[in-house]
Amino acid sequence: MSRRQILTLLIIIAIAAFSVSALATNIGGREGLVLGLDLAGGTNLVYEADFTGLEEGSKADSLKGAKDIIERRINAYGVSEAIVQIVGGDRISVQLPGVGNITEAEELVGRTAELVFREQATSGSTFLAAPVNVGDTQITVVDVTGVGIENIVVVGSMDSPEAEAKTVKTVDGANGANNTITVDSPFEYGHALDEPVTNVWIPATGTIEGEEMLLTGKHLKPNCFVDINQQTNEPLVRFEWDDVGAKLFSQITGRLIGEPLGIFLDNMLISAPTVQAQIGASGVIEGLNIGEAEMLAIQLNAGALPLPLGHWEDGIFYSGPAASRTVDATLGADSIRMSLIAGVVGVLLLLLFMIIYYRLSGGLACIALAIYAVVMLMIFKMVPVTLTLAGIAAFILSLGIAVDANVLIFERMKEEIRGGKALRAAIESGFSRAWPAIRDSNISTLITCAILYWFGSRMFGGAMVMGFALTLGIGVLVSMLTAIIVTRTFLRITALTSVARKVSLFRP
Question: What's CA 319's distance to the chain center, in Å?
Fold first, then answer.
């Protein structure tokens, strides 16, 4: 056995072992695969829309726009199988399969993801002159110079990751006579006199063609992604501006060198890095854990909701869903059990056919097929792909499709053996002659997948098309690897043993 064959076999074993290990361990808080609403149920959230300020003719379009954005947020790759529907003309129903954390679901669906950049006011910061108690709506500071209505104040330590260490509020009023600041809502946490400072933030602006403009997330390109800081090993979100945003960002960072630039998401301070140099077309957002960074990237790429979603109560609009409940599986246990039995029987018949008709070659193909199955399930878990009953049926069907390449190869091998070639020569000839047909058929399928995914990403409600295309494309790629590499390696190794002399084991 050559060194190359040994190395290939070890890689195959390592991939199979990793796949089995991934299926058996906790990934992203998931012990097993994510099952769809039909198999495991999930969470149903219902949001009411706030049409305040919208013209009558634009309400329906705004609601449809909100529905589309929610679909993109929770189903970025088309594989989550979530159901988003408009109900009654003023509500949106969101059904999320397998979601156990309702709070996390509400965060992803309902937040507006309004990203705003702010700079410190002229006064910069001022110390507390009196303690702040829970429930207070007013604070007393040493100096209110530079504090204005709708400014943002951050009371406490900005560097602490704990929510209790800092409070972010909007200024409703400032009184220079007694140095008090009135804020928009009561304090949830108390703050003592020995806490650092009260930081005052104003919107960061620039000038484009003589017009003063705010720097907000609306100028971001939809290509934000999560990266890792190579120095601190902490997650960060990289973003890129459009032409207007790049000019504003360059102006603002140019005048704030050595000063902090506050990054606020929905009026909550995410981070306040000190500007080191003038920056133009791109930047980063730090101070998040990996889960928060991933969620922020999705929200920023999907865009802000065109209207607030929440619920009405006594004429007052509050954030959060009007109703949230756990929903049961849409299919009965008997239907699921019978469908799975049918799938298992189908797979067993496939394996039995391969072994009976192609004998030892078919047995090796079955082992390769098992590796294909665990690799596919590992990918489903890590993406994650939500498995519905239809998805499971498609996966079982893909097992049958995956052996197509092996069938072409084995038929070529049988012809070469009948022609008098030795097993090793027949194996090499069978693979080389079958490869053009395998390659062309799979490339045509991958092209179809790419077209479906591209159209699905641009169609309203095309998430299921995207999911089907992505899943099928992954299956085709993995099946090519298992047929060309795994099965070939097994046959080559077998050809070096004494079994190779028994030609009847490889053809009827």
Answer: 24
What mean pLDDT comes out for the span 381-391? Answer: 73
Q: Which residues contact 386 (CB under 8 A, 6 or more apart)?
A: 34, 35, 36, 79, 80, 81, 82, 97, 98
The residues near 93 (Cβ < 8 Å, ≥ 6 apart) are 44, 45, 46, 83, 84, 85, 86, 87
The CA–CA distances, whole Å, from 396 to 334, 370, 373, 467, 475 equal 19, 12, 9, 17, 11
Kindly state the percentage of the chain with pLDDT values over 90.
2
CA distances for 228 relative to 15, 161, 165, 236, 260, angstroms: 25, 18, 26, 6, 22
How confident is the model over 122-159, as pLDDT tens digits?
666 677 888 888 888 888 888 887 787 878 888 876 55
Contacts of 207 (CB under 8 A, 6+ apart): 213, 251
- In CATH terms, the fold of domain 3-36+331-505 is Multidrug efflux transporter AcrB transmembrane fold (1.20.1640)
Q: What is the DSSP string of 375-391?
A: HHHHHHHHTTPPB-HHH
Q: What would the pLDDT profile of 190-228 be if each residue is shown by its tens digit? A: 887 765 567 778 888 888 888 888 888 778 887 888 888
pTM of the entire predicted model:
0.55
C-alpha pair distances (Å), 373 with each of 44, 120, 217, 253? 32, 56, 42, 52
The token pair at 209 is 């063609």
pLDDT of 71 above 60: yes
Residue spans per domain, the chain: 3-36+331-505, 42-112+305-327, 113-203, 212-258+272-301
Least confident span in 16-20, 303-307, 337-341, 442-446: 303-307
Is the pLDDT assigned to residue 112 strictly greater than 60?
no
For 390-401, give the DSSP string. HHHHHHHHHHHH
And the tokens for 376?
């596919």
Q: Both tokens of residue 146?
A: 């530079």
Which residues partner with 249 through β-bridges? none
- Identify the residue whose tokens are 């459009």: 242
Alpha helices in 403-462 (DSSP H): 404-418, 423-458
Report the C-alpha gap between 355 and 340 in whole angstroms: 23
Which amino acid is present at 446? L
How many other C-beta atoms can be found within 10 angstroms of the C-beta atom of residue 255?
12
Burial 11-29 (b: 16+ CB within 10 A, else e): ebeebbeebeebbeeeeee
Query: What CATH architecture is 42-112+305-327?
Result: 2-Layer Sandwich (3.30)
Residue 127 backbone phi and psi in degrees, to 5: -80, 150
- In CATH terms, 212-258+272-301 corresponds, of 3.30.1360.200, 2.60.40.740, 3.10.50.40, 3.40.640.10, to 3.30.1360.200
Looking at the predicted structure, is the pLDDT value of residue 44 above 50? yes
Give the CA-trace dihedral at 296, 298, 302, 307, to 10 degrees: -50
